[in-house]
């Protein structure tokens, strides 16, 4: 009956009946999209804001794999501030990924605590 809405500076719960589709934006791709579909080249940045931890972890795995395949030396993962749960899930996934050499919080001009930089192995 409620939906959790993520904005640029806050996350809040609203009655689902108050939500209306945004006709200006195309619908987001579902997490259940088959992995066999071709994906876009890894751009070096991944935005997982608004995703649940399980979705974000899967996105991070795919993003790091794509970055490594494209020869990108690092990836910035934008997770936002929120409660810190998404940041913790993203950082844990990055630390466990075999292609990631090290993980660091982003500098203030690149998102600060709302983003994490993953440096890939050479």
How are strands sequenced across the largest beta sheet?
3-4-6-5
Largest sheet, strands/sense/barrel: 4 strands, mixed
What string gives the helices and strands in order? EEEHEHEE
Shape: elongated
Query: SS-based structural class?
Result: alpha+beta
Overall pLDDT score: 82
What share of residues are in beta strands? Answer: 15-25%
Through-space gap between termini? 48 Å
Radius of gyration: 15 Å
Name the helicity range. 10-25%
Query: Helix count?
Result: 2
Topology, number of strands = 6
Low-confidence stretches: 30-39
SSE blueprint:
Elements: E1 2-6, E2 11-15, E3 45-47, H1 53-70, E4 74-78, H2 85-96, E5 100-105, E6 115-120
Parallel strand pairs: 3-4
Antiparallel strand pairs: 1-2, 4-6, 5-6
Question: How would you characterize the overall build of this protein?
Answer:
The chain has 122 residues and is an alpha+beta fold. The chain is 25% helix and 25% strand. The chain is built from two helices and six strands. The protein has helices at 53-70, 85-96; strands at residues 2-6, 11-15, 45-47, 74-78, 100-105, 115-120. It has a four-stranded mixed beta sheet, covered by helices on one side. A two-stranded antiparallel sheet has the order 1-2. α1 links the parallel β3 (45-47) and β4 (74-78).
């Amino acid at each position: 009956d409620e939906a959790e809405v993520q904005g640029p500076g806050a996350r809040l719960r609203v009655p689902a009946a108050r939500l209306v589709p945004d006709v200006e934006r195309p619908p987001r791709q579902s997490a259940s999209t088959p992995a066999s579909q071709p994906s876009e080249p890894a751009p070096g940045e991944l935005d997982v804001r608004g995703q649940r931890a399980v979705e974000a972890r899967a996105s991070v795995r795919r993003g790091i794999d794509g970055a490594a395949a494209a020869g990108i030396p690092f990836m910035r993962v934008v997770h936002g501030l929120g409660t810190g749960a998404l940041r913790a899930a993203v950082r844990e996934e990055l630390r466990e990924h075999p292609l990631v050499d090290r993980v660091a919080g982003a500098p203030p001009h690149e998102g600060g605590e709302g983003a994490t930089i993953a440096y890939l192995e050479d």
